[in-house]
Write a structure and sequence with these properties.
It is a single chain. The chain is mainly α. 74% of the residues lie in helices and 3% in strands. The chain has one domain. Strands 1-2 form a two-stranded antiparallel sheet. Helix 3 packs antiparallel against helix 7, helix 4 crosses helix 7 and helix 6 runs antiparallel to helix 7. It is elongated and about 95 Å long. The two termini are 43 Å apart. The mean pLDDT is 82.
Length: 264
């Protein structure tokens, strides 16, 4: 007769629940996985399938019952680690959204907004367009598979333990979030420079010929110049965004190292 002790059952549950918490945290924040088009049931099923596949290759888990207070603390901690991993890649999409907002504002398309159910608010049309291009690039470089691979390797860089993670790691994540503004501005800078030249030319033209209606000719010119500049930068947009994705993947091990408990 097969008998299972409570300790063995706790060990089996811990081997599945602790990695699954980190996986579900990643799916809650990472691009593609966190899209509202992907149902919660699909995320849970994918996470459960990956978690079951990872059980044989996972390092030993702490001998803690998942239902105990310490076990719940470990699960919450693992979920935050997964959210942090997805957040590091989400920063690239935030920078692309910011670049689209800056370009649209300079082109006079700040009024061209619509409700984005994925973002949960109003989004500029150009931001949504650039985000779609970035999403296609992310899928083209197999970024979703790289994220899952990094998550699996994260259990080697930051194993599951009862020790509280280092608080300085959250400061590293906050500093990484500050780079969104600089990156978004750099992505939008070529178009902004072209529009600046166009606005200066329009200013000189209206100064030389005051009878010209600036509002009648300025908006079509800035709009056309903006789309022309956007068309020119699209040839280099892919390699730049790909390098940003690669850089975000490289920062994940550094972030996990910063989150590692002191002395581990």
């Amino acid at each position: 007769m097969l008998s299972v002790t409570a300790a063995q059952l706790d060990a089996w549950l811990a081997a599945l629940m602790f990695p699954l918490a980190r996986l579900l945290g990643l799916f809650a924040s990472a691009p593609i996985f966190s899209n509202r088009g992907v149902s919660v049931r699909a995320r849970l099923a994918i996470g459960l399938g990956i978690g079951i596949a990872l059980v044989p290759v996972m390092p030993p888990m702490p001998a803690v019952s998942p239902g105990s207070g310490i076990g719940l603390m470990i699960m919450v901690q693992q979920m935050f680690i997964g959210i942090a991993i997805g957040f590091m890649v989400r920063l690239v999409f935030a920078a692309v959204d910011m670049a689209g907002s800056l370009i649209g504002m300079q082109m006079g398309l700040s009024f061209a907004i619509f409700f984005d159910p994925d973002a949960g608010g109003q989004t500029a049309v150009l931001s949504d367009f650039l985000s779609l291009v970035a999403t296609l690039l992310f899928l083209a470089i197999n970024g979703h598979l790289i994220l899952v691979d990094l998550l699996v390797r994260s259990f080697e860089w930051l194993p599951v333990s009862t020790t509280v993670i280092n608080a300085d790691g959250w400061g590293y994540i906050a500093r990484a979030g500050a780079t969104v503004f600089a990156t978004g501005l750099l992505l939008a800078l070529p178009v902004i420079a072209v529009l600046l030249v166009a606005n200066i030319a329009l200013g000189i033209l209206t100064r030389a010929a005051p009878q010209l209606n600036l509002f009648a000719i300025g908006f079509p010119i800035t709009l056309a110049m903006g789309f022309f500049a956007l068309l020119l930068i699209m040839t280099n947009f892919g390699p730049v965004v790909q390098s940003l994705f690669e850089r975000s993947f490289d920062t994940i091990p550094l972030m996990l190292e910063a989150l590692a408990p002191t002395g581990s």
